[in-house]
Write a structure and sequence with these properties.
Layout lengths: L8 E5 L37 E6 L9 E3 L2 E5 L4 E6 L5 E6 L14 E3 L2 E5 L4 E6 L5 E6 L8 E3 L2 E5 L4 E6 L5 E6 L9 E3 L2 E5 L4 E6 L5 E6 L9 E3 L2 E5 L4 E6 L5 E6 L9 E3 L2 E5 L5 E5 L3 E8 L10 E6 L10 E2 L5 E6 L2 E8 L3 E2 L1 E7 L4 E7 L1 E2 L13 H20 L2
Length: 411
């Protein structure tokens, strides 16, 4: 399955911070920015939709553009890879790939590294081109359509419809190793800590040794894994057509958490700071705590009626956790986001009620819920009746007087 973008030109937008599309301090040379696939950049994006230039190809553009050293590279369904001047949109070169048998045609998102451009194609080949001239350096033939590569440490990693994950020498194109899965590998690999992480249509995500291709672990999702994983802070994030977004331990493959959306998820996660962003076929974009969680506190009285305006503070938190800052909801709840994992004891206070507390355990990516029940504040030893408020006592006195007066009238 391919996700075709029906546009016939590439658009460059004006950015207010620097001249549009100029050489960047933080280029985007491969799909999703870096080999860990965080999809995060320190650059500021366009703040307007003012069009600087557009370039027309011969067919739809299925590829995402990548930018390196003032040049933009992308593939088109007209079976060409293009290199344009990032400032002007002028064509620097194009290279025509072999035509494949796919009905969608074309090539996929390239990767730029060390003065070379690497790209997969429907004609079953991986190509290496000179980044400045477009001259072919080498090609490697697989048994099926090849998708989006990642280049790291002098090696090219890429998946193919022949069910294999390939590692090729980036300079020569010689195969270093291949790993056979049980279905098409559309996912683009992420690389971190000497390992590669990649999904397959066989419902698995694999962790392989980047040098040898040896499998370290695999995790089984409920359906195809089209998305490309993202790796950050020792966790792997990916999605599946089973409607779920997953977080795994990068070293062991153990599931840390999963979240079920309302539709299939082919979107690849992006990670920024402590938040994971991903889209779903349910028409929603979700944000999850990547390495943190949250606590949602609700407070009710003894009759289960919500109490609004409560002050909630922590009396016990994990070591190193800064002071909590909550956000009040329209339902009277208070939510604490971006908190470290561990156990928390929170105390609720409000005039007229007995202070009460509760404990919540926070795990990565989840919002723990904590319900605290208030008891009405007694009047204690201040001349009242223990267990009753002054209002209740006053009502009792009035009722007593009325009953006494009524009883005397009947005598």
């Amino acid at each position: 399955m391919r996700f075709k973008i029906s546009i016939f030109f590439l658009i460059c937008l004006y950015t207010t911070s620097i001249f549009a599309c100029a050489v960047s301090a933080d280029d985007w040379p491969i799909v999703r920015h870096d080999s860990s696939h965080t999809s995060y950049t320190t650059d500021s994006g366009s703040l307007t939709n003012s069009t600087l230039w557009s370039y027309t190809t011969g067919a739809s553009i299925e590829s995402s553009p990548v930018v390196s050293a003032g040049l933009v590279y992308f593939g088109s369904a007209d079976n060409n890879i293009y290199c344009l001047n990032a400032q002007t949109g002028a064509k620097v070169w194009n290279y025509t790939l072999g035509k494949g048998t796919s009905t969608s045609g074309g090539s996929y998102t390239p990767a730029v590294s060390g003065g070379y451009v690497y790209i997969g194609s429907d004609d079953h080949n991986v190509y290496c081109l000179n980044a400045q001239t477009g001259a072919k350096v080498w090609s490697y033939t697989t048994g099926g359509t090849v998708y989006t590569p990642v280049v790291s440490g002098g090696y090219v990693y890429i998946g193919s419809d022949d069910h294999n994950v390939y590692c090729l020498n980036a300079l020569t194109g010689a195969k270093v190793w291949s790993y056979l899965t049980k279905a098409n590998v559309i996912s683009s690999p992420a690389i971190a800590g000497g390992n590669i992480y990649i999904g397959s249509d066989d419902h698995h995500i694999y962790c392989l040794n980047a040098q040898t291709g040896a499998k370290l672990w695999n995790y089984t999702a409920g359906s195809n894994v089209y998305s490309s994983p993202a790796v950050a802070s020792s966790y792997v994030y990916f999605s599946s057509l089973d409607h779920k977004v997953y977080c795994l331990n990068a070293q062991t493959g153990a599931k840390v958490w999963s979240y079920t959306t309302g539709g299939q998820v082919s979107s690849s996660p992006a990670v920024s700071g402590s938040i994971v962003y991903v889209g779903s076929d349910d028409h929603k974009v979700y944000a999850f705590g990547a390495t943190t969680g949250g606590i949602k506190v609700t407070v009710a009285d003894s009759s289960s009626k919500p109490v609004v305006g409560v002050s909630v503070s922590s009396t016990s938190t994990p070591t190193g956790q800064a002071a909590l800052s909550g956000v009040s909801g329209s339902d009277g709840s208070i939510t604490f986001n971006g908190v470290a994992t561990g156990s928390y004891t929170l105390q609720a206070t409000m005039t007229g009620y007995v202070t009460n507390s509760g404990t919540a355990n926070v795990i990565v990516g989840h919002i723990a819920t904590l319900s605290i029940t208030f008891q009405t504040q007694s009047t204690g030893g201040s001349g009242g009746i223990p267990g009753y408020t002054y209002e209740e006592i006053l009502i009792g006195i009035v009722l007593g007087v009325v009953i006494l007066f009524w009883a005397r009238r009947r005598q």
